Structure of AbrB family transcriptional regulator:
Amino acid sequence: MPSLRGPARLALFMLLACGGGWLFQHIGSPLPWMIGPLVVTAALCISGLLPVQVPNRIRPFGQVIVASQIGLSFTPATMEKLLWLAPVMLITAAMTLACIILIALAFSRWSGMSVAQGFLAAVPTSPVEAAAMAIDHRIDPTPVIVSQTLRLAGVVLILPVGMFALEGWPATRELPYSEVPFDPLNILILALCGFGAMFVFRRLRIPNPNFLGPLTVMAAMAASGYGPGPYPGLVLAAAQVVLGAWLGSTFRREILTRAGRLVMTSVVSSVTLLVLCSSIAAAIAWVSGLNWQLVVLGAAPGGVTEMALTAKFLQQDATIVTAFHLTRIFIFMPNIPWIVALIARFETRAHPAERDDTP
């Protein structure tokens, strides 16, 4: 639609994304207000009908709202439960890391990527963060971004639908927190606390500040008994639309057609990683006696925002799923740079002629 420009194109794009959320809510899809916009916007971009890139500065709106909502669930009783589950979380994180390394070794050469690229493509983090780490280590970030995007989209689409298929489609199609009244003052307090925490965590250079900042502050307020009320369902749905539309807008037909081998390998490796992590998580749940859905969501190689939302929609304890992912984040994020540097150094010594000098 060349006649539309800038803000008008983005507004129409987001409106169509909302329509996708409404449609998927109507048919009873899991995570309708994220999966619907993801499917609709990806189709618009791949088909060329309305290719729009949702600005990265809009994405924190969705992350902050979801993180604040999850943080309010961290009651004192929940904190005690999380301490008891700490060994299971550590074991799950370690097994997930082993799966990622195995997938990187198995699929990197097939896709034409180096092992370092394959590791950054598979590790659960955002495409932006993975690309930044690739550039820091003089690795071509393009295959990493493509693979990370496909992995996130695949997990968001496959895992909720697969769990619904196994457990049965829920009878209710109500949006979580649909019964919460629309209180402008409470929404304002939540927004000020959430976005203020995000900016503080950014200044402190803490990883994933858009999620960890609001989550930490809201969890502390809830645990102390002074937490505000949750967001109403309408605001939570709007946050999911932003996240789904942002992810869908990253798809482009030229990238998918030009890098056919990379795309095919990324899809196969992402599905393999998801199946491997889910199988190990199910085994850990069986041994520990935990609900298998909780552990599978906690071990899933997807974003913490998306998996926490999935847990909420499946009426599972989102705080436990979030804690699984936070454990993995705090273990992975400080160690990813040196693991990538070690892999890249080994590959450079083994194949000096193949070194990628991408700045």
About this structure: DSSP finds 16 helices and no strands in the chain.
